[in-house]
Design goal:
The protein is mostly helical. It is built from four helices and no strands.
């Protein structure tokens, strides 16, 4: 993987944190980067699919765990999901910078 591809792949993984600054930017930024760069840099397509699967999976898991909060087990699991939401994209960015496409663990594979 060349230097430009590594840069864009790293930014793609880290762009999920844009949502902390601007609402919905954590969803929009990765999808825009993926769609714009996937044709010129083919390796970006695989990273984009991983990030999209991660985002969709996090919403599904958060919805299920929120429902489980009524029986109290969802509260600590939501806490762990929040930690995973921070740690996993950082690991993905580090791996992308090393030139490998890292598969997020326990994510629903839609793409």
């Amino acid at each position: 993987m060349d230097k430009e591809t590594k840069l864009w792949a790293t930014l793609l993984h880290l762009s999920v944190f844009a949502g902390y600054a601007v609402p919905l930017a954590g969803w929009i930024a990765p999808i825009v980067i993926w769609q714009v760069k996937k044709d010129t840099l083919p390796e970006i397509d695989e990273h984009g699919k991983e990030v999209a699967n991660f985002l969709i999976s996090m919403i599904v898991y958060a919805t299920v765990l929120t429902a489980l909060c009524f029986v109290l087990i969802g509260i600590p699991l939501l806490f762990l999901l929040g930690i995973a939401g921070v740690v996993l994209p950082i690991i993905g960015a580090i791996k992308a910078n090393e030139g490998t496409c890292w598969r997020y663990p326990l994510m629903i594979r839609l793409f």
